[in-house]
Amino acid sequence: MKRSSSGVKAGHSSRSDGGHVSAKKQAVLPGKQAKHGGKQDLLLAYQRTVFTALFLGYACYTYNRKSVSYALPTLLASGLVTTSSVGIISSCQNTAYAISKFLGGVLSDKISARLLFSVGLGMSGGTALLFSRTENLYIWALLWFLNGFAQGAGWPACAKLLKKWFSPANFGTWWSVLTASSNVSGTVSPLLSAYVIVNHGWGASLILAGLVSVIMAGLTLVALVDDPALVHLPDPTAEVVGSPRPSSPKKDRQNGNGNKNNNNNSSTNNQMTVGELAASPFLWIVCLCYMVVFCSKTAVSDWGQIYLMEELGRTQMQASQFTSAMETGGFFGGILAGIVTDRIASKLKIRGNPRLIVASVFMLACAVGLHLLNYILTISTSQIFVSSVGFLLGASMFGPISIYGIVASESFPAHLSGTAHAVVALAANVGAVVAGWPLSWVAKTFSWSGVFLLLETLAAASIVLIVFTRRLHLTAKQKKA
Length: 481
Hints:
Elements: H1 2-77, H2 83-107, H3 113-131, H4 137-151, H5 154-165, H6 171-200, H7 202-223, H8 249-254, E1 259-261, E2 267-268, H9 274-278, H10 281-311, H11 316-345, H12 354-376, H13 383-410, H14 417-434, H15 437-467, E3 474-476
Antiparallel strand pairs: 1-2, 1-3
Helix pairs in contact: 1-3, 1-5, 1-6, 1-7, 1-10, 2-4, 2-5, 2-14, 2-15, 3-4, 3-5, 3-7, 5-6, 6-7, 6-11, 10-11, 10-13, 10-14, 10-15, 11-12, 11-13, 12-13, 12-15, 13-14
């Protein structure tokens, strides 16, 4: 009985001690949770600030980049430029943009993305201000070459900051929403520019675009932060906030940073070299498709107003409504592309890259829109239908533009994702260069109908390329929810 009694006492003592220890742990945990919660709240506040600064800043990049395009009808009507000289100015900007966007992708890994973004925006604003103060064609071409070179700093810095501040689980969605900033700008700025040009002249429109860009550059320099670690915040890209990033190839593959070919024709892993990346057939498929859609988007954005005014007798405000509708469609198309492909990439089991299959559907709609623009719209067509065609074209072009960038970034190993995106971005901007002087030559030689027929044919060819090369597609391994 004594043993039993002592045993009971011992057992009671043990339970009491255990309860006492648990009580101590419970007393400590709330403090830790509060501290963790405080860090999380602060992280969310910084994420909102960074994303807002990027969204508004890149909207200003887009407004500035298109500011001359909005003034082109007035410059043509006044005799200050011809169709050929407009093509030269446009190609100068797009050539510089192609080069600098590639270099920007490399520089974003070497220097502060915050500085890269802000300095590029400030330089873009400066060139727009200078453009408004002269009427010399050669100086215009030089200034817009410099503008394109400064513009190339914008998106690589955005991509770098997105990767630092946001979880890869929703990368496609965040990417698409940020891309939509250019559509918000493209929706508002044509109407704003048309109003300023009609009432105050084309020079005032360029001055406004330049001042807005310079002011926004100063704000982003203050608001952006390169890395959460710089403000002592946990890593939001880790699987669990505050946990270290995976460092081994095996862990990278398990977390979706490694990739595989669906049919085992080739493999991509963390040991892939730049040479192997350059030799990847999948990379060149994405490059070609990206080049086609970017050429089409640039052509319709830059030449659409002129076509509607010269061929269909529309006023500048009506032509601007078409451009605005196109950008509005692009806003919805770009976001829809990111959300839809994020959801189906991990659920839809098909042969080929699911994101590219979705892009081919968008390109089919793009071909339809180009056909409507070329053959259905007439002088007597209602403005509502004209704007509807613009909306369709915007949605069907900006959707694939968003998808191709995501695919290039996620389908190759982490240490080459920036290079892969820089390569496809370079291809896209080659398409933008082709949309300048080369397409102006086609328009002059074969008419605008020849231009849109060519773009429609290229859109159809990109669909065929995606569908019939599915065995070469690479697909990022998705994380399990």
